[in-house]
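Human: Respectfully, please carefully check these tokens:
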Amino acid sequence: MPEETLKPSQLRTPPGAIVAILLGSGIASLFILWLVYKHAPTDAAGTELHWLPLADAILNALSAVALVTGFHEIRQRRVLHHRASMVFAFLFSSIFLICYLVNFALHGETHLPIAHHGALWNTYAIVLFATHIPLATIALPMILITFFLSLTGRFAAHRRIARWTFPIWLYVSVSGVFIYFLQAVIHK
């Protein structure tokens, strides 16, 4: 059957698009690792944008709300509302990523003023290092692939990957807020 007569849901996803998303996500993840662990802070102008972590927490919370709303909307079969909610989740997460990168570029890693032991530190370390960071790294290409499949009309494939993308993206958003609050409590 010629490709022109196939419905969008019957089209095969071009492997090159997936490879490009995975490659771009890998490069972005390596850049973030470099920025967080190797790059020296460069706030030479003394801007001290210390509100950025709070903005990140708010953006993560808004993303989580949009994700839950989108999930509810698709369960009600309100596709246009679902799509709008998911676009908002994507926008909030994208703005979060920009603020996160600016914060690390200017201020570097958050240094916590407590010894690295105790229940609070252990909770923080487990959530951040064992779950949040690895899942955030996985979430980026999954989100992009899920969006690509939706935007290109490959809804069966979109549904299959969205079943995995949604809980991971939601966890990363909620745990980002949790990490912010743990850092705020630890700083006091």
Observations:
- The longest helix spans residues 119-151.
- The CA atoms of residues 60 and 173 lie 5 Å apart.
- The chain has a mean pLDDT of 86.
